[in-house]
Amino acid sequence: MADNKVWKPKILGMVCNWCSYAGADLAGGGRIQYPPDVRIIRVMCTGRFDSLFVLKAFADGADGVLISGCHFGDCHYLEGNFKAAKRMFMVKRLMKSIGLDDRRFRMTFVSASEGAKWAAVITDVVRTINELGPSPITEFRK
Amino acid sequence: MMVEKKKTTTKKTETKKQEAKKVAPVKQEVKKQAAAPAPAAQNAVAAPGATTQKDARIGVFICHCGTNIAGSMDIQAVQDYAKTIPHVAYVDNYKYMCSMPGQTLIQKAVKENNLTGVVVAACTPRLHEPTFRTATKDAGLNPFRFEMANIRDQNSWVHMHDREGSTEKAKDAVRIAVAKAALLQDLFPKSVPVEPAAMVVGAGVAGMQASLDLAAAGIKTYLIESDMSIGGRMSQLDKTFPTLDCSQCILTPKMVDVGRSEKIELMTWSEVENVEGYIGNFEVTIKKKARGVMTPKEAAAKGIVGGGCNGCGDCDAVCPVIKPNVFEVGMKPRKAIYINHPQVVPLIYTIDFNACVKCGLCVTACGPEKRAIDLNMQDEFIKVKVGTVILATGYDIFPIENKQEWGYKRYENVITSLEFERLICASGPTGGHLVRPSDGQTPMRVAFVLCAGSRDNTGIGKPYCSRFCCMYSLKHAHQIVEKIPGCVPYIFYMDIRSFGKMYEEFYYRIQNEGAKFIRGRVANILEDPKTKNLHVYADDTLLDRPVDMEVDLVVLAAAIEPKADTNRTRKLFGVSCSQDGWLLEAHPKLNPCGTTTAGVFLAGVCQGPKDIPDTVAQAEGAASAASIPIHMGEVELEPYFAQCIEEKCAGCGMCVNLCPYSALSLVEKNGRTVMQVTEAKCKGCGTCGGFCPGGAIWMQHFATPQIVAQIDAFLLGGEE
Asked: Is the pTM value of this prediction over 0.80?
């Protein structure tokens, strides 16, 4: 990749089918604009997210990772988001221990009716990652 | 318990730390997994070697969606790029991929190019995944060999002015989708039988109509009502707009039909306690609250021949405890043993055990023959199995005293519309004579305050329009003009929303009958302490001058809000709610009765404010939708089940504890302990697969190699 190009953050978003993905679709229907830097992978529930996926993404050179699901108590599968949240804390601790800023990884809760919130979340995530700059792992990989 | 939990966390962290150190081997493991055949025989990779990653041939189809997508990105650039993605054997674009020619395009391309998978870059899978799965199936492939790239709802629509950004995002989305499509397997939906029974929660006009329709379609229906009688809000109303039908007159026959129908099992004074299962096989536990009074049927079951409550009311006459009747909005007394009103269905008395002093006078009055009263009755829990469920839980009145400037509950002569309904109703506390609560005099000047708590963005009220207040306030205006000669109604409004059939005509009629309309929101209401008359302060926005009007009675058209226990109900059934708390439909336009939980449907105001015609229409729609799976006899479940890769499973049992549906268990196989999935119970959330430390769980359609391939495609694919 040419280094002289303006750096654009690479952010992975893993979202659940029932709440956040639907919320993101709703933001689309409402034409609520937000920055285009997040790429979405759809899973049925945030409970599906393996800590490994997040670490793999960072190892591959992601500058940020976002997991987004239903609000607590609203999970389509009862409690998948609780389990995801537990993993999130573990991964964040792990990130700190290897010197990776844990603000690069975030878990949010956006319901199917919160299109505006989804846009706000993405805008905020992109701003945070822009402030943090490229992931140190990208440098390391070179 | 706590100690054990801590231990687990530490263990987990260690494992992951080790894995994190050796990032490279992850890839190896992934490949190994991909090569491993899926464990269950019937769901294994179609033919040996048919689709390993090497020989996948993927077709990419890019949709313009008119200018919805094409207007915001460079379709040609995406198409040119798609050709360079590994495994892509064919790329095409079309104006509307979901149209018949678009689908034919897919079928033709699959056949001519020997494709093994299809990627459509278009809108959202939540809209058109079924469409394109069918197209893929019609092309001769397994329908699950399809993957969608969302380049409209989550791209062109939200990056409308960033052509470069959206084009790049679309390229990545296609690449990610192709990576998954190359690893997709043939899957076969599982058919499960549907229990030929339905359940309706809430017996207002929506629930009753839905139950009657289901019963007419020959379906056994359980109708659950938390109150002591069916009828709901509509039974509290006097007349209905714009036809001025008497509400009870048109409702009571329906109530009687519900009570009489052999197909409807009516359970009043009951609540849903717990729900398990899935479409076709919901196991619902119903709490039958202790009523203190036996029905003839229950009495017969206890061997009391000819016993049980016949609604004579002898108990009511002797009961010494007096309480406000909630049905009459507290304006009429009732006893501790009571019925809401004379036309209740079923006509069975109920004891309010919070008020009852257990003096036993009612038992004596009931007599030795009927022996209907049992003061020691306990709550009963009944389990029923149903195929589909309709929620029709209705609404509550917004506590309008929160808008303090209007003085409800501070000034006696400020009442709500529901109180007005009861006061003007012939069967109400005053026998239909509208009186001022302060002195019992007939009011001659009545102010109606519309949008009381609705369309209110102050944070105290509700931001939405409650939809029927304009119309019933017009009706109220008509009723007082009709009943009290010389009485003038003053209607303070923002807009009159008379949108229904014959509604606008009704509005003109009320104007001609002498109602005064003042366009302006009421700022404040103050009471004259001597006369108890009220001063209504508003700004007449048409004449552009302040108004101070002295009236005898103020009626607040209070907003409505979701029923207090809606949250509990919706969590039991796994239904979402919209921001304002109403239950969320599956699609606002194309699926207004469905929910995101298959087999659960919505009817009436629980989904959002509606008037009676709309409520009944939606109830009939929901009944029709709920009867489809039952008449089909079986439903297909999406085959996103977990599978155990037995050679990797260490039998630790962590997943068994994680599964919220108890779908996993440990079994002995060939001398080893391994996990086993009960497919019918598995809903495919993947929580087990997200945790398994050995990578021994294969989540069909969302398998680890597939997701890792997506991550790799996004982050590495562009560079390598």
From this structure: yes
